[in-house]
Amino acid sequence: MKRAAIYARASCNEPIQSQLNMLREVAQRRGIEVVAEYKDIVSGTKARHPGLEALMADAKHGLFSVVLTNSLACLSKGT
Q: Do 25 and 70 form a contact (C-beta atoms < 8 A)?
């Protein structure tokens, strides 16, 4: 079974809780184990994104092999 992280961010056009619920459902339908969830309630290009920073650190340590997010733009600090 693939191990995944979920990432949700306030600036991704849907409420964070809606993003998390939808991504949990996607993981369940595809048989993916969610091992971590990260979220950022801040938006903007200058703001720190501690959730994204934690996700990146955990990815480097091999905690998961897949990241589920509402949009690839959510992974970009510039959007």
A: no
Tokens matching residue 15: 């409420």
What is the C-alpha to C-alpha distance for residues 6 and 26, in angstroms, rounded to an integer? Answer: 10
Reported as a single tens digit per residue, the pLDDT across 48-75 is: 889 999 999 999 999 999 999 988 777 7
DSSP, res 11: T
Residue with tokens 């950022």: 40
Phi, psi at 49, each rounded to 5°? -125, 80
The H-or-E segment that residue 12 falls in is none
How many C-beta atoms surround the C-beta of residue 76 within 10 A? 11
Q: Which helix (H) or strand (E) holds 67?
A: strand 66-69
Distance of CA 71 to the CA centre of its chain: 9
Single pTM value for the model: 0.86
pLDDT exceeds 70 at position 26: yes
